[in-house]
Structure formats: C-alpha cells, structure tokens
Specification:
Layout: E1 2-3, H1 7-28, H2 35-41, E2 65-69, H3 70-75, H4 81-86, E3 122-126, E4 129-130, E5 156-162, H5 167-170, E6 177-183, E7 189-199, E8 205-217, E9 220-231, E10 234-235, E11 249-250, E12 257-260, E13 268-271, H6 275-281, E14 286-289, E15 295-298, E16 304-306, E17 308-321, E18 326-343, E19 354-355, H7 362-365, E20 371-374, E21 385-403, E22 409-429, H8 431-438, H9 460-466, E23 467-492, E24 495-514, H10 516-519, E25 532-550, E26 553-563, E27 568-579, E28 583-594, H11 598-602, E29 604-613, E30 618-628, E31 637-650, E32 655-667, E33 670-672, H12 675-681, E34 688-690, E35 697-706, E36 709-725, E37 728-746, E38 750-753, E39 770-779, E40 783-792, E41 795-796, E42 803-804, E43 807-817, E44 827-835, E45 862-871
Parallel strand pairs: 3-6, 30-35
Antiparallel strand pairs: 1-27, 2-5, 3-4, 5-6, 7-8, 7-45, 8-9, 9-17, 10-16, 11-15, 12-13, 12-20, 14-15, 17-18, 18-21, 19-20, 21-22, 22-23, 23-24, 24-25, 25-26, 26-27, 27-28, 28-31, 29-30, 31-32, 32-36, 33-35, 34-35, 36-37, 37-38, 37-39, 39-40, 40-43, 41-42, 43-44, 44-45
Amino acid sequence: MKNPKTNKATKLATTLLTSVIAVSSALAVESPGSGGKLASNDVEVIGVIGSYIKRQEQADRPSPVEIIDAGNIEKIGAFGAVDIVNSLSINAGSQNNNDGFNQTFSLGTSNINLRGLGVSSTLTLLNGRRQVNTAATTLNGDQFTDLNSLVPTIAIGRVEILKDGASSLYGSDAVAGVANFNTKSDFVGLDFNLDYKSTTSDSQNDGQFSVLYGHEFNNSNLILAASYFDRSPLSAATRSDEFELRDANSTFGNPGTFLVFQDAGAPQFVADPSCEQVAAEHPETTTGINAAGFCNFDFGDYFSMVAEEQRSQVYAEFNSDLSDDTSLFAEIGYNDNKILTTSSPSQPILFPPFIPPTNPSAVAVGNTQGALFFGRPFGTSSDASIIDIGSVTWRTVFGLKGELDDNWSWQAAVGHSENVYNYNDSSDTLVDRFQAALVGQGGPNNDLFYNPLYGAQNDPSVIEDFKGSYAFEATSKLTTFDAHVSGEIFELPEGTVALAAGVQYRKNELEYDYNDAAENDNLYFFRGNNSFTTDGDASAVFVEVDIPVFAGLNIQTALRYEDLGNFDTVDPKIGFIWLFEQLSFRGTYGESFKAPSLFQTAGGLTVPSRVLDPLTNALATVSQRTEGDQENPLTAQTSDTYNLGATWFLPDNDFSASIDYWRFSYDKFITPENATALVANDPYGDQLERDPNSGQLTTVTTFFRNAGVLETDGIDVSINKGFDTNIGEIELSVNTSYVLTYDLEDPIAGNIDGKNQRNFTNFGVPMPALRGAIGVTWKGELHSSNIFVRHVSDYEDDNSDNSIDSFTTVDMQFNYDLGSQFKDGTLAALTLGVKNLFDEQAPDVISRSGYDPLTHSALGRQAYLSLKVSFE
C-alpha cells in the first residue's frame, strides 16, 4: 500500500527495524547452531536472489527463481549478457537488436523486460548490488541498467532471475522481478576465450576476445577479467528485399515539393520537376509523386540494421579474509562502448520555410508570389549521415562481511558507479541559417542563395553554413550504501525462525548538456531541448522473517519502508513454501513500486515518429516532443504481484518440473502519451502543430503520464530430465511462458486487450501469447552437442489489418574437448554452432524496419565458433 509521506510512518518503520535488530542480537548467542543439521545432510546452503535468508534450491523458495549457470550460458552460445536475456521465455519487449529505427537515443545499450512491464521495471543487479542506470533513455524516457556495461561475459558465473515483484527487499524498479548477475568470485586459473559469429547471407560478424585470471594468496582471492568486442555494421539496404511491408516513406524528400502561392486562387503543390526522372533512376529511394502532389522519399535504406560497435571491458574483484569471522570484498569495473550508425542523409524540414521569388528555384516551379518548401536538403543520391555515440561506465564497490557466531552473519558495502553517454547526430538543419540561405543571405558572408531544387549547383560553403547537429553529453551517477544482518532467532517445535534486516541508501544524479543548436531550438527536426541537472535520493529499512509453521510448511514475510523525498512507501510481501518428500508448493503476494525516472521528471526528448493522420489517411513523419507536464507531476507506479507454483523433483531420477501461475496488476504506469492515439482522438488538438498553409501535420507534443493500468497474468512451465545412457548423458529441457491476459487501460485509447497484439498504438509492448524453447543436450567423453527449438506464437498488428506470423528457429551446437591433445594438463574446447539453422526470416510488419525488432531478430542464420583454453 502506497502512503503519503508522514512522520508516523517513518517512526513506525524505524522502530520496527530497531526492535528486530535488538531482539536478533540478544538472541543470537543463545540460538542453537544449524551447522550440525547441515553437516549431517551434507547440503550447502547458499544465498539466492529474492531473499536475504539462505536457501538450497527452487523447491525451498517461496518465490520463483530461474538460475542460468556458466554451463548453460555456454550452451546458448552467449557472447554477452544480451544473449542470455534473449533466451528467456519470460522476456518480452526488451530493446536488444541495436538498430537505429527503434533505439534512437539508446543505441549500444541492452536491457531486460520481464513480463512486458517495461525495461525499467526489472531491477538489474551485479553481485546483488545496483549498477548505475544508463544516462541514455528509451523513447519512453525510461532509464535502465545497461546489460552491456556489467562485466565481461567470461566472468559471469551465474544469472539469477527472480520472476515476481521484490520491492519489499530491493525497493524501486523491482516490479516485474530482479536479474542478478553473479561473477566467478572464487575462480582460480587462467582462461582465454576467442569467439566469432557471422551471418551466412551477408557476413555481418561479431568477434570477441576474453581473458579471465584468478589467483589465491594469503587467505585472499583476486580475479581479473577483460574482453574486447567488435561488431561490423549491416545496412538496412542489404536486407530491403526481405521485408515487403517496410514503410519508410516520407513526403519530405529531395527532390522535394513546393507549395506555390498564386496570383489568384489557392496555392498549388508543385513537385520538383526532376521527381519522376529521379524516381525512374533511383526507385529504391524516390518513389514518385503521390496523390497529394508530394514527391515521396524512402529513407529506409539509409539506416543501419546493425550498428558498428567496439566495446572494451575490464573487471577486477578482490576478496580477503581479515580474520576467522571477517572478510573484505572489493569490485571495480570499466566499460567503454563506441557506436557508429547511419541515418537519412538529412532530416526533413518539418516547418516549411518561405522561398521568395528571387530564389534561383523560382522559375522552375512557377514561383512568382512566394512558395513554401516541403523537403530536406539532402535525399536521393546523397550519402547517409553518421550518428556517433560513445558510452563509458565505471563502477566500484567496497565492503565488509562477517559472522557474529555460527548462526548470524552481517554485511555492509558502499558503491559508486557512473555512466557518460555522448550522442551526436549530424543530419539536422539550422533554422536561422537555412532560412537566411533561401533569401540570399546564407554562407559565411551572408550573401549566398541556396537553391533547394534537386541537383542544383550550390556553393559548398552555404551548405556547410546551415548543416546542424543534435548533440548532447549525459551523465548518470549512483551512490549506494547497504547493510544487513541475517540469522536465526529462536527454535519452534518445527524448526528455527530466521530473520534478515537491513538499511539501504542510494543517491541518483542525472545531467544533460545539449549543444547550442539544441539549446536554442534552432533545429528543424529535433528542434531542441534544455540542458538540466537533477538528483534524488532514497533511504530505506527492511525486515524479512522465515517462520516454520508445521512440518514442511514455512511462511516468509518481508516489509520495507522507503523514503524518496517527495513521497514514501511501505511495501509488504508474504509467501509460503510447503515441502513434501518429492513435491513442493509455493505462493507469494507482494506490493511493489517504481519511482519516476529522473529524466521523466526533469528532461525531455524530441524524436522522429510515424503516425497515422486521419485527415489524409496516410502515415506522416512528424517531430514528437515528449516532456514532463509541470502542471500534472508524476507519481510512483504501483503494483500488486501474485504467484502460485509447484515443483516436482526426483533427484534419484534426475528429474524436476515446475509450474507457476503469476499475475501483475500495475497501476499509474508511466509512459508518454501515444502520438498516434493522440492524433486519432483529436486531429486538431492543442498538442498538435500543422502547417497553416498546407495543413500538413508537423509536430505532436506528448507528456509523460501516469497512464493507467496494465494487468497481466499467465503460466510458466519448466521441465528438466536427465538420462545416463551407454552413449553418454542426455538432458531434455522445456521452458515456456503462456500469457493469459495483457490488459491495458490507456488514457487516450481506452481499455485494450493487448494479448496477441503488437500494441504499437498504446503503451504496451508486443505480446504474443506463447514463448518457449525445447532443448536436448548430449554429453559424451570428448564430445557434446545440443539443439534448441525456440518458438514465438503469432499475433496481430494493431497498426494495420495484418497478422504477424509465428516465428520458430532451431539452434544447434557441437563441442569437442581438445584437452586430450595437450600433454601438460591444459584444458581446451572447440565449439561450433548455428543460430537459426534453417535461416527463417523474421515475419513482415508494417514499420520503418519491416519487422518487429522488439520480438524478432532479422539477422537470419548465424554461424559461430568459440575456442576456450584453460590453464590451472
């Protein structure tokens, strides 16, 4: 339940935590040890995400947790954390395909989107602690943890996915769940990995070299990891023939269109006289004169389907025992990512400027009284423009942990991490200098004309004078402190009552520094934004208790109070686990929240957008400006989460099966108003701008809103069975997620059944009902192989009358143990694999890219090779 800020709530939570810690400390010395029980059963008890109270395996946890270890990471041929996320059946709508169409201001980043609740609604942790959110944002203004910024993949030992809400322990952002990436902290030895992957149709390739070193000395352990990743680009033009429904047409081209004023009567649209000839010579970019008289321009081929990228990562971790019961740990990481991508040769002149009859273009278009220009300076026959992006992230953590006695442990740490994201798009046009050039006052000496006719001979200096860039440097910072204790309080007839309690503090900072053209709103397309600096902090206390009720049944409860300055929140969670000999039942109920991002409260963005204009019944390319509405400030998003599941386990038969029913009720969901829905609702609304002469839609202003409600539920199924045969070990696996409902309450579009929909016209994400994978793994003495069949069901495109086909791909991998070839004990393995073995093409979708990058990969078949060499 979310509450307004009150001193009473603060005192209540502080008193609760203080009392718990006091009682815990008093009873810690008297509590009987559990070491004897663990020793007799020879079972290691470990800490796993979702609880500060240690557990053994899924059958012992109230919350559903999926664990992907290093072996499974290798099986899927993961070059990076993004490959791990993309293999999850519960991931829906993450932005991981690194294309310029959909990640306008976040290229080079990747994220996770559990249950389709938003890329910022899943908390991402590294070794159980927060990493800074990227300074880059999605087009929804969401900030998220960039998976590319964590650690080299070679250093990842285990990934834990908590599949229900966890704000009661972790605070804001843990609405859909938690993804915790654990490093190989106790690794000893030296590993080298060499990885190469390439598409088989056009040789887009990824290469990666990684090294991991671990050393033990004087009760201490040090690991060092480093990797270099190189990705070659892939132009959309290379695959343009594959996507018949790609729609990247614009009525603002070059050749352009002129609205010519007449001596008498209404002005007339006149296409550039060269339009039809250019269309005949370059049909891939100029598509001729449309019914309204505009010379159409297809900009799709100029974009990158895959951006060029080079990423360097280093990571170090140090652990040392200071005494028998106290140890020190420290982490430091650095990530440098450079991205180059391409875009249209220039952006459209969205606010058509006046051209006097004295302009050199006047005679050709019959301009005797003046005209307006609908076009762009560079179009057909021009080179693509370049977008240059750099992202640097670093992180450091220092902490202590120890044992109070056999039953109680403690831990405390401070951390700081930063991300600096630089963006420079050189495709825009300066408003003042372009207008000056049209009237003969352009160029360095203010005395040159610019002729906007296609192929006109213009002085290069006048062109350089009006070229504009949209650029910014954004910096995001995170400082954290956390401390907790956990242990046993007292014995009940059926077992020991366990407790964990702690305090947490974090401070987030965000700064955006835009270039002068953007600061002065002097750009025709991106227009501009104001630089800003903002911050926010949060303080929290939490307590968690595990109570054995009777044989096999434990109740686990957690309560968290968090103060975020403008508001505070109390978030409870309760769960149970009921264990039988070969069966367990579990269930949880929790309340979660997500605070508005700093960008959503203080920033703004302007992006190109394609919207359906009901006045012309055609898609229009517009400038979409999104910002916070100061008259209606944002509040926290809230969620109620339910999960009920069961696990059947037969250890002697190497078998386990789990099924979970889950439900999320997400209220006050923060998202920009949908531009398409806004235009459809009122084509002449106050938030729309149209050219006063032509009626052409040019700008749509949208606000970040607490949009409404998103309710979704479904069923997850996981089955694993191992066989020990004469030809080796065989393992069968099934992982699938079926969505029962995905209902949205959009403030403009109203109530929406989003299941089996692309959800392009609302704030949801594409939601096919079924995602899943079936796998078979075989392991022999020197050889091993696996095959996975991955399936995404079909769904409807709410932006058209088309259906989007189901997508089934087959991944295959073969491994050979090369260790037998070395006589000195060196371990080595060679892996050959293929993703999308049968080269299935992503289903066609009416969009600028021609497919749905939030759901499918358009790369087709990819072959990869990995060589791993290990020295002990």
